[in-house]
Amino acid sequence: MGFFADDSTAGQAYVQVRALPLISKSSSSSLTSSSAAVSFYASRELERHEAEVGKPASPADTQVLIASFVGPSIDKEVEMRGLEFVNKDVAKYDAVKAAFAEYYKEA
């Protein structure tokens, strides 16, 4: 099982954000739900990476991996869904922080 459960707040935010129509001008997706959704996505990608390559050697390597999954994902969501009101840098920071905290809470 991953470090985020599918029924967690982050898992629900992931489903909510992914269900938004492309180029939506709706403000229903907040910065918080976008960050939570992307941290959920990053956790799944980190699990896949660990299954293929193994655990990262250090916490710093883990954080770099999480950030490498978060950055492009936030950019993609903002671009595809027209979420101009989302501060991408704050969303990236919040998503990395949440995913990293959840990763080490599980350990």
Task: Give an overview in words.
With 107 residues, the protein is an all-alpha fold. It has one domain (9-106). The chain is built from four helices and no strands. The chain is globular. The two termini are 12 Å apart. 36% of the residues are buried. The mean pLDDT is 76. InterPro entries: DUF3759.
Question: Short description, anyone?
Answer:
InterPro entries: DUF3759. The protein contains 4 helices and no strands.
Name the quaternary structure: single chain
Summarize model confidence as the mean pLDDT.
76
Number of beta-strand segments: 0
Coarse structural class: mainly alpha
In whole angstroms, the N-to-C terminal distance is: 12 Å
| Rg on CA atoms, Å | 13 Å
- H/E topology pattern: HHHH
* Strand residue percentage: under 5%
Number of helices: 4
Instruction: Give the CA-based shape.
Output: globular
For the sheet with most strands, the description reads: none
Low-confidence stretches: none
Percent range for helical residues?
Answer: over 70%
InterPro entries: DUF3759
Features:
71% helix; globular; single chain; 107 residues
Topology of this structure?
Layout: H1 9-19, H2 31-53, H3 59-81, H4 88-106
Helix pairs in contact: 1-2, 2-3, 2-4, 3-4
